[in-house]
């Protein structure tokens, strides 16, 4: 009997299961698939999702130096920010499995008499009949979003909104998630289109309300609409829980602070820090942020509270932030002195690099900058900017200021040093010695602290390497290590002595690579002298050696000891030696100060456009040194600044000074013109027009017109920025006239007047070659190229040290390049690239060619790659000539060169001129009439024609 019941039960189970297949759509199958989806596959996926999400929100380390993210998942868009921990792949897999195994797509059997019932019609039009499967879809979309797959999540939620329309709450939720995904993708317009369609009556439960307000908050913050975001964020906080609630409260405080609501910000940070589930790091940062927005009448209690935090061990690694907060409190009361003192303490107490230290250094640097202490501001910016993310507000502006400060600080340091030395020179020897001894005592104290810190760090590093417990009770409090052979940069005395010796020989210089290299655009006439810098240095050094031949051994030893002490900053002799004593030494110190003040003004004006700061330096120069040698240029710079600011009255005062005191100068002559202001407004257009006419005259061999244009330019616009170009054309016109002296003198005048322009390297190259013995030869006409002597290197001295000729090779069968060269000032590089790319696309269906652009001053290159040998280039050139729609500017010149030879040009900083001369005299004769400016010079080496396997290819260099 029992056996019969068991068989019956088995038969019933098989029949029930077969009736619940996804291929059938009955009430039984729908119930079964829904039940199985919920309590089997979905349950496991949801458990994993909830656990992973909670862990992600609780463990994420927010960056409190910037606006915290609405949710840690947003960090996926910022790779340099701390990344959230947790992977939701398992939940995605479970959701996919649930959909694949339990989705019911089959339509149910039609019921007679129901065809006109709207609800029945809607039921029959559904695409899914498993009443629980939408939860699997939603879990998959949320998991994709939390994995950082915002595009995939957006697609999933879009699918849900279109295929589950009979579930209004699910549709609304999917639309909100879709908008949130779009926000994370940066598609704010698409997100807005969704959000404005969501009506309040659609938000029927807490889940939807919470999602709506958090999404709207995210949308508004990404659009920097902080004021509008605050109400939505306040609503979102009401629905949030745990770590996420604390995070949003902190964010609310930041938004209040950004909108100037400091009292509300103070309370928001207080709530964030007082939350029971907030980690100590959050509590600490909330307390620091409170000090930044404090608006009480008396900051004493707030400062005292912060100082009390410094005594706790748990705050040791946060001391920099505490002192930074104290500095902010003092700064809020305009107590700059105390603010700076605490910012300095913050920098000293910092135990780690990062955004917190960078922000402190930026604040300190800004205060120094506003005080014109550029020598002190420079190291602050130099240390801070590399630690900032590129997304930091005004990052480019800060980087630009840091770069300019590198140059500015050199002059500021010279001014500060010479000014302090001059003040010392006015004191009595006793007063000088007293001040110097204080400096030495401070130096020794600082060295002792640095040495102790270095020994402690070395000891701790050794203990960590051995795996010992450095926190044990046996840890010594002081360390005695052998420092007899300290590394140079740990030995302050040696370091300072080396710095002094360096500055004595080379002067104060910016810390940079290749510091001995002159400015890339600079030029020194001494390069034409027979004596080199090295010879001059050696001669100076020899002449400066004292005569010690008549000294006794005791006197000689005493002299050496004095010299040793004068090079060591631990002895008074080191400082006394630097104090100017004679009138000549004091005059030199004053000259250094004048140079520094003027150059600081120019840099602030031209490179930072900080006109008030520039005016401060210029006015200081004029007040301290009324007859300084920079007076004319100072007047003119002040005139330009005030004109740009629209302060015409003040500008006219400096114009009058120029006209009255310097009437014969180029500035004075130009400003005597009653139409000067009108000319100033139109000068850019007029100058470009005059240059184009002069250039056309040069190409048409009308040298007289070129000279006349130059003279006219000198009369009308002697201060023009494009005057160097005019002078260069003026000089080159003397070539076809075979006027050696005027060619040389004009180029030298150009280099003296304009040592830092883009034309300087070209003019310098010509004069260098003439100084090396090359003579002018009279060509039959002016050339269009004028660029072949430019070295293919951005290194200003590359090639100067290269001896001998380049070892080129000629081989038809190796990879070759077709290089289109052009002058960058007359040819649009982007248009040329477009024309060649279009030609390649329309003319070659199978073959692909790579295009690469390079720039070397005025010489531009468009490199066409993809040719295996010379024959392919010949075919390409033929196709190019037959393409009537390809219109290249007449200044473009093609060059065929092997990849290996071009590699030599680039790596060794050679010029095309050297390559052409290598090919042989026959090649030069075939090409120089059309493209080669090297015809200006004779070849002193008288190289013979190259007889090689490449001679047959000389015709490839001919122009079309």
Give an account of the 3D structure.
There is one protein chain. The chain has 960 residues and is mainly alpha-helical. The protein is built from 39 helices and four strands. Strands 2-3-1-4 form a four-stranded antiparallel sheet. α3 packs antiparallel against α5 and α8 packs antiparallel against α9. The C terminus is likely disordered.
> How many runs of DSSP E, i.e. beta strands?
4
Structural class from helices and strands? Answer: mainly alpha
Average pLDDT, rounded to a whole number, is 77
Output the radius of gyration. Answer: 39 Å
State the main characteristics.
single chain, about 950 residues, mainly alpha, four-stranded antiparallel beta sheet, 4 strands, about 60% helix, globular, disordered C terminus
Q: How does the SSE layout of this entry go?
A:
Blueprint: H1 2-19, H2 27-59, H3 89-102, H4 118-124, H5 133-146, H6 150-163, H7 168-185, H8 188-195, H9 206-222, H10 226-239, H11 242-258, H12 262-274, H13 280-292, H14 300-309, H15 319-332, H16 336-349, H17 355-370, H18 374-384, H19 395-425, H20 429-466, H21 492-506, H22 533-544, H23 553-566, H24 572-576, H25 583-606, H26 611-624, H27 631-644, H28 648-661, H29 666-671, H30 676-699, H31 703-716, H32 723-736, H33 740-753, H34 760-771, E1 816-823, H35 829-843, E2 850-856, E3 859-867, H36 870-882, E4 893-898, H37 899-908, H38 912-919, H39 921-927
Antiparallel strand pairs: 1-3, 1-4, 2-3
Helix pairs in contact: 2-3, 2-5, 3-5, 5-6, 5-7, 6-7, 7-8, 7-9, 8-9, 9-10, 10-11, 11-12, 12-13, 13-15, 14-15, 15-16, 16-17, 17-18, 18-19, 19-25, 25-26, 26-27, 27-28, 30-31, 30-32, 31-32, 32-33, 33-34, 38-39
């Amino acid at each position: 009997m029992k056996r019969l019941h068991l068989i019956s039960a088995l038969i019933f189970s098989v029949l029930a299961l077969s009736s619940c297949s996804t291929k059938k759509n009955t009430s039984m199958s729908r119930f079964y698939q829904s039940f199985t989806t919920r309590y089997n596959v979905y349950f496991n996926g949801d458990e994993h999702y909830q656990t992973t999400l909670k862990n992600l929100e609780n463990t994420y380390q927010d960056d409190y130096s910037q606006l915290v993210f609405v949710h840690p998942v947003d960090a996926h868009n910022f790779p340099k920010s701390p990344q959230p921990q947790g992977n939701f792949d398992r939940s995605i897999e479970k959701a996919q499995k649930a959909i694949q195994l339990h989705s019911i797509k089959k339509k149910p059997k039609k019921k007679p008499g129901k065809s006109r019932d709207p609800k029945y019609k809607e039921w029959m039009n559904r695409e899914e009949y498993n009443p629980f499967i939408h939860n699997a879809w939603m879990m998959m979309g949320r998991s994709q979003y939390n994995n950082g797959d915002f595009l995939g999540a957006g697609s999933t939620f879009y699918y849900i909104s279109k295929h589950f329309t009979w579930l209004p709450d699910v549709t609304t939720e999917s639309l909100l998630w879709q908008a949130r995904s779009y926000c994370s993708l940066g598609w704010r317009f698409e997100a807005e289109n969704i959000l404005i369609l969501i009506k309040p009556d659609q938000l029927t439960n807490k889940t939807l309300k919470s999602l709506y307000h958090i999404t709207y908050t995210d949308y508004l913050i990404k659009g920097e609409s902080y004021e509008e975001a605050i109400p939505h964020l306040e609503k979102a906080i009401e629905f949030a829980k745990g770590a996420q609630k604390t995070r949003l409260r902190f964010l609310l405080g930041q938004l209040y602070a950004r909108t100037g609501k400091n009292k509300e910000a103070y309370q928001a940070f207080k709530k964030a820090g007082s939350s029971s589930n907030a980690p100590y790091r959050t509590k600490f940062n909330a307390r620091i942020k409170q000090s930044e927005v404090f608006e009480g009448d008396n900051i004493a209690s707030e400062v005292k509270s912060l100082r009390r935090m410094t005594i706790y061990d748990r705050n040791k690694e946060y001391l920099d932030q505490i002192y930074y907060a104290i500095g902010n409190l003092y700064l809020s009361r305009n107590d700059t002195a105390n603010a700076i003192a605490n910012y300095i303490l913050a920098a000293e107490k910092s135990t780690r690099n990062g955004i917190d230290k960078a922000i402190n250094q930026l604040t300190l640097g800004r205060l120094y900058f506003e005080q014109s202490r550029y020598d002190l501001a420079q190291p602050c910016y130099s240390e801070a900017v590399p630690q900032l993310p590129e997304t930091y507000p005004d990052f480019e502006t800060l980087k630009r200021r840091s770069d300019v400060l590198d140059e500015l600080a050199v002059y500021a340091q010279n001014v500060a040093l010479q000014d302090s030395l001059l003040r010392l020179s006015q004191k009595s020897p006793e007063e000088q010695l007293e001040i110097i001894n204080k400096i030495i005592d401070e130096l020794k104290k600082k060295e002792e602290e640095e040495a102790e810190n270095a020994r402690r760090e070395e000891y701790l590093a050794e203990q960590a390497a051995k795996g010992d417990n450095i926190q044990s009770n046996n840890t010594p409090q002081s360390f005695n290590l052998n420092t007899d052979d300290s590394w140079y940069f740990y030995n302050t005395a040696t370091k300072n002595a080396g710095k002094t010796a360096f500055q004595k020989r080379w002067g104060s210089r910016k810390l940079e690579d290749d510091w001995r290299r002159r400015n890339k655009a600079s030029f020194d006439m001494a390069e034409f002298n027979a004596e080199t810098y090295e010879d001059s240095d050696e001669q100076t050094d020899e002449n400066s050696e004292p005569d010690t031949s008549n000294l006794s051994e005791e006197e000689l030893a005493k002299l050496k000891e004095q010299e040793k002490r004068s090079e060591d900053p631990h002895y008074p002799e080191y400082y006394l030696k630097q104090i100017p004593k004679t009138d000549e030494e004091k005059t030199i110190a004053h000259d250094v100060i004048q140079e520094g003040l003027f150059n600081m003004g120019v840099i602030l004006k031209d490179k930072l456009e900080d006109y008030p700061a520039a005016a401060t330096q210029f006015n200081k120069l004029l007040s301290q040194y009324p007859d300084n040698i920079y007076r004319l240029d100072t007047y003119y710079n002040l005139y330009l600044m005030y004109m740009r600011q629209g302060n015409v009255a003040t500008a006219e005062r400096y114009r009058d000074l120029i006209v009255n005191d310097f009437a014969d100068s180029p500035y004075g002559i130009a400003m005597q013109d009653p139409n000067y202001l009108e000319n100033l407004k139109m000068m850019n257009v007029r100058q470009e027009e005059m240059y184009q006419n002069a250039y056309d005259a040069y190409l048409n061999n009308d040298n007289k017109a070129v000279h006349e244009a130059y003279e006219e330019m000198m009369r009308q616009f002697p201060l023009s920025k494009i005057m160097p170009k005019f002078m260069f054309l003026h000089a080159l016109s003397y070539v076809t006239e075979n006027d050696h002296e005027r060619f040389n003198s004009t180029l030298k005048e150009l280099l003296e007047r304009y040592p830092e322009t883009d034309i300087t390297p070209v003019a310098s190259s010509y004069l260098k070659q003439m100084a090396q013995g090359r003579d002018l030869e009279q060509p039959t006409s002016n050339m269009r190229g004028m660029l072949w002597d430019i070295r293919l290197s951005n290194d200003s001295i590359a090639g100067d040290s290269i001896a001998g000729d380049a070892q080129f090779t000629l081989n038809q069968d190796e990879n070759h390049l077709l290089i289109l060269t052009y002058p960058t000032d007359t040819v649009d590089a982007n248009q040329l690239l477009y024309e060649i790319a279009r030609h390649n696309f329309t003319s070659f269906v199978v073959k692909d060619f790579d295009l690469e652009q390079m720039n070397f001053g005025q010489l531009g290159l468009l490199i066409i790659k993809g040719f295996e040998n010379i024959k392919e280039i010949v075919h390409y050139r033929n196709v190019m000539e037959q393409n009537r729609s390809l219109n290249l500017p007449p200044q473009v010149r093609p060059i065929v060169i092997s990849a290996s030879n071009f590699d030599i040009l680039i790596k060794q900083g050679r010029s095309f001129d050297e390559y052409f001369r290598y090919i042989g005299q026959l090649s030069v004769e075939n090409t120089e009439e059309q493209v080669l400016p090297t015809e200006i010079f004779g070849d002193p080496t008288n190289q013979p024609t190259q007889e090689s396997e490449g001679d047959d290819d000389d015709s490839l260099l001919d122009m079309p």
